[in-house]
Amino acid sequence: MKFVLLALLFSLNLHLVRSLVECDASGCELKNYLRGPWPDRRPCKITKAFFPTNEAELLDAVAYAVKSKQKIKVVSREAHTMTKFACPNSGSDTGGVVISTASFNSNSSVVVDKSSMTVSTPPGIMLGELIDLLAMQGVTLHQTIAWDGVSPAGMVSAGAHGSSLWGRGGGTYEYLVSMRIVVPASKNEGFAKVVTVAEGSDLDLFHAARISLGVLGAISHLTFSVQPMTKRSVTLSVADDASLEDDFLRLAREHEFGEVLWYSSQKKYVWRTDDRAPLSVPGNGALIRVPFLPVQAAAARSSRLSQEAAETIGNSTFFCSAAKNTVNTITSTGGGFVNDEQQQRFSGFPVVGYFHKFQARGGCQYTYSNSTNLALPESERLVCGWDFRAHGQFWFHVSVSISISDVGNFIRDVKQLRDLSPERLCLLDTSIALQIRYLKASQAYLGPKTDAAQIEFITFRDRRPGEPQTYEDVAEEIEQLLLFKYNGKPHFGKNRPHAFQDIGRKTKNLSKFLSARRKLDPQGWFSSDWSDAVLGIRGSPVTAKDGCALEGLCVCSEARHCAPDKGYFCKPGLVYHEARVCSNRS
């Protein structure tokens, strides 16, 4: 193995991802994509980082780690899970190796085969770049996530998704055809080897690898099915939510890529009618995903400070006004949709454009490798709006899939909670509201067992550890409705740590996944304390200590898990009485 060459590769490419993997003479530290604290508030210190550019170099990196008896995690250029799957250790030590695919991203390695309607791609290319390359060949991916800053390998490993109940559904992993994975090997095999898993061969390995959490090995190559380029036609409509529990499924069955934004505090929902259109239909529209665009650091800070000021005094009027304004203007402003991408102009629905123009968009991630931008004074630099160092947004983030058959009852529960005090839900409605997207039942072992709705919300979280938010109890009760009353499966790339309890009951077949893990990585070099806890191997994703419920490390069972010194005690939920939430209500 060329370990000397590998060390040189490490030093030469360090600058490419300095924003997320920072190294000095004492070792390295991995940052998450928020550039802020990990959920447990512990840093991710590592022994060494590698930046391979091809499969041979990736093979060498894995071999080095296995020979050195170091835990291994693979990360992409800009987007790691906000959970700690990307860290090779628990945070209480500094062991382990991180392999970044930031430089394993050659455009020339993207190969479209129109006879089989597939694309082969390296693992580290940015999703937005891949989408644009495919469009030049007249094809598109079937499904993507919203942000273009992820890599294809990371996208499928975390079980990321779009939205659809048609065909194979909204899961990006449903359209995988094959993967090449570098896995640990014996000394005689050079400590690392490449295995291929494919749809038509060993189905146990393939169904395990489709959503792998990075614990099976390092993906070196992916092949997806693609489809001929077409167009899409999108309309946003606002409706009263009186019949949402009946409407949500009918709308999903009638429209291929539909989704719902439910502004529960306003008793309204926004329905996205989103369907294919022939290439002959006029239109050069697109979706401009504003939250993912670059923003000046000073503006990111100002926006966050306004929220902090309102939240500190419990100013529900501030948040209710913002939610009302969004609902009242979304159809007149376009909600990010434009009829003319060149002029960034919205003139009315429907918006018609090429298929890929409605997939992953954004671009803020490129500001961190732009030398001109980095040379600006700190307050003038462009950043992503969630940049913690710029005092950007910081979230209590929940994303959980529940069975389609349970969604109606969940909506009724939230309505009942809303009707007790509508203003207490306004804070949830100032970001993505309650977003409902759709997934089909999957054969992937860590995928959903049934057709499901992925329900997601983002709300305010204090930057300081152990600090409650004014409407903490509402967010926690809705989170626990999803996780416990409706046995929801948490998105592996999002959510607070306690959400990952009892994953075995919520996925397709955890035991078969663990069997595949033992076959590909019997010593667990690609696993960590955190992944072992989530997968039920040993340990627990729950940590009980003072303030743990506010940090998402536990569900409270006693006052000290909240903030009794600030008037927040552990109390039953208002609607879901089995819930235990941190509340300041009398």
UniProtKB/TrEMBL annotation:
Signal peptide from the UniProt entry: 1-19
PROSITE patterns: FAD_PCMH
Reaction catalysed by this enzyme: L-gulono-1,4-lactone + O2 = L-ascorbate + H2O2 + H(+)
UniProt keyword Oxidoreductase, yes or no: yes
GO MF annotations in UniProt: D-arabinono-1,4-lactone oxidase activity; FAD binding; L-gulonolactone oxidase activity; oxidoreductase activity
Keywords, ordered alphabetically: Ascorbate biosynthesis, Oxidoreductase, Signal
GO process annotations (BP): L-ascorbic acid biosynthetic process
GO cellular component entries: membrane
Pathway where this protein functions: Cofactor biosynthesis; L-ascorbate biosynthesis
Keyword check for Signal: yes
Pfam families xrefs: ALO (PF04030), FAD_binding_4 (PF01565), GULLO2-like_3rd (PF22906)
Entry's EC annotation: 1.1.3.8
Superkingdom of origin organism: Eukaryota
Entries under InterPro entries matching the protein: ALO_C, FAD-bd_PCMH, FAD-bd_PCMH-like_sf, FAD-bd_PCMH_sub2, FAD-linked_Oxidoreductases_BP, GULLO2-like_C, GULO_Plant, Oxid_FAD_bind_N
Ranges of residues in domain FAD-binding PCMH-type: 42-229
Enzyme class: oxidoreductase
Membership in a protein family: Belongs to the oxygen-dependent FAD-linked oxidoreductase family.
Classification via PANTHER family: GULONOLACTONE OXIDASE, L-GULONOLACTONE OXIDASE 5
This protein's name: L-gulonolactone oxidase
Organism: Selaginella moellendorffii (Spikemoss)
